[in-house]
Amino acid sequence: MVSKRAGPPGSGGPAAPESGAAPLAAVAAARELSAAAAAALQAAVDRARAAGHSWKEIGDVLGTTRQAAFQRFGRPVDPRTGAPMSKAVPPGTAERAVAIFADIVAGHDEAARTDFDERMRDAVSAGRLADGWAQMARLFGRFERMGEPLAFPVGEHTVVTIPLSFEAGEATGRVTFDGHGKVAGLFIRPATTP
Quick one: 191 exposed, middle or buried, by C-beta within 10 A (0-12, 13-18, 19+)? Predict the structure, then answer.
């Protein structure tokens, strides 16, 4: 398909046909920019810590809690061995947790249970999920939005926390995935002050 836009200034002609690869090239460039920004943010946090700033101060600047700042940018050390601890999480874990909460918000409680492990399926019915969500609405009113999820390893599990905003309060959603990617835990609780 030929674009009907004018070509580059001074070219006197129409623009070249749009390439199907151009949007993908833009995605790749944005991914590289995002990785560079993430590396720059990590370096800035490292410099702030080296200068003696607390995790609370860093969290305040980032608009999050000190725990969330540490979990995202800290460099934990195993107290038993003194060795650095891994911060790797399986790809897509945070997105899966967001999808589970999106299903709960939409009232698709059975869909939210799709990846529950056997113990969770036995313990948490679709009705129990709906009851828990109704309790949050009773406490905090209408749901407004989810914040940025944070995924981090805890032993053999991966935990994802998601800030949940309601019209009259804040809560935290948490999904725990086991080593096989199954949901081994899920809860929603009122957010605590940092």
Answer: middle
Give the pair of three-digit tokens for residue 20. 């199907």
Amino acid identity, residue 103? D
- Sign of the Cα torsion 77, 87, 178, 144 reads positive
Helix (H, G, I), strand (E, B) or coil at 53: coil
157-166/169-177 β-pairing: antiparallel
Residue 7 confidence class, pLDDT cut points 50, 70, 90: very low
In angstroms, rounded to a whole number, what is the distance separating the alpha carbons of residues 35 and 188? 31
Q: What is the pTM of this model?
A: 0.62
Sign, CA torsion 38/40/46/48: negative
Q: Which residues are CB-contacts of 110 (< 8 A; sequence separation ≥ 6)?
A: 126
What is the average per-residue pLDDT within 157-184?
94
Cα pseudo-dihedral 161, 162, 168, 169, rounded to 10: 20
Long-range contacts of 125-133, Cβ-Cβ distance < 8 Å, separation of 24 or more: 129/104, 132/188, 133/104, 133/105, 133/109, 133/188
